[in-house]
Amino acid sequence: MSSPLAFDPARMFAVFGMRAVDSAGFDREVVQAPGDDLRCVFLWGKDCYNCNVFKQTAMLHKDALLDLGLTWFECNVYDDVALGQRFSLHGVPAFMMFRHGKRLGRISGWPGLPQFTEAVRRLRSGPAAPPAPASTQ
For the structural domain made of 12-124, what CATH number should be given? Predict the structure, then answer.
C-alpha cells in the first residue's frame, strides 16, 4: 500500500499535458504537425533514476516549467528502442526540441531548472517563422 504522499512519476505526464509519441508516428505528430510552437520531446526510461529526478523536479517547479509555453511529448525509449537509436541516445533523460519541422537541439540529462529555462529562452529568441522561399522572378 502506498502512502498518499508517495510520488507517482506518471502523474507528471498529465500535469504537463505530455502526449505519448513513438517511432511510428513521431514525424507526423511532432515534426510535421502544423503550428509554430516550441515542441519538447522528453525521452526517458522506466525506472531510470535521473529520469525520475527530472519528474520530481518538474512537479516541484511545475509553474516555472509550464510558463515556458512548451508543447510537451514523451516517449519511454526503453520500450521504443528505435526512437532512441534515431537520436543516437547514450543516456536518458534527453529533451529534443523542434519547431517548424526542424530539430533545434537536444538537452542531454537534466541540467537543472535555470539551465533548462535559459536553453528554452535561447531557442525562443531564434527565428519565429521559417524563412520565406526565394523569389524566382
Answer: 3.40.30.10
